[in-house]
Amino acid sequence: MGIELHAMAARVRAIVPELIGLSLAVIEDGITLTLVASAEQIAALDAVQYLDGGPCVADLDRKEPLDVNIDDLFDEHRWQMYAQASGALGVASSLSLPIMDADRVMGGVNLYAATLDAFTGRHEQLADAIGTDAALAIANADLSFRTKKQAAEAPGRVRALGDINIALGIIAESQGVTMTTARERLRDAAAQAGISEEQAAQTIRFVRGP
What we know:
Elements: H1 2-15, E1 19-28, E2 31-37, H2 40-52, H3 55-62, E3 66-69, H4 70-76, H5 80-88, E4 93-101, E5 104-113, H6 123-139, H7 145-152, H8 161-175, H9 179-193, H10 197-208
Antiparallel strand pairs: 1-2, 1-5, 3-4, 4-5
């Protein structure tokens, strides 16, 4: 999978030199999971979207490309946690492309770039560059949310309890939920993105500041 993603990224970068990274998501049992990401920071951006909304999640509902400039999100006060995380990681624009099987959305590709309007006018060209490989990767994926969640919770990992507790407070306050619910949402978002709870918490804490 890593070789295929590297080749896909190289084709996309030939079209969009400002590309920072990309991720490939698959829908399983109604849940969106990150199948593979080009870097830990990219997976963390996916986790923020699973937790609090963002273009890659909305795109799978829309069944059409969704091109987003981060400045517009700040102006619209939309997907604020995602906008803050993107800005902190140097992402200025993103493009989410659904991967279709007939009329059914089977997954999507999320592209992240360092400049505004990096993907404008290039949607069809990018879809051609990634479509077949992405569809095959998703079709051949062997994933389960339960397995990924168990892996993310595996014993022996380093526990950054301070980061987790701060992130839980941020989630509870911003979403108006209890700490217990915040913990469940953080855990599920991390598992969907294929990263640890600590990694997701560190991203949330980082974008909100000390």
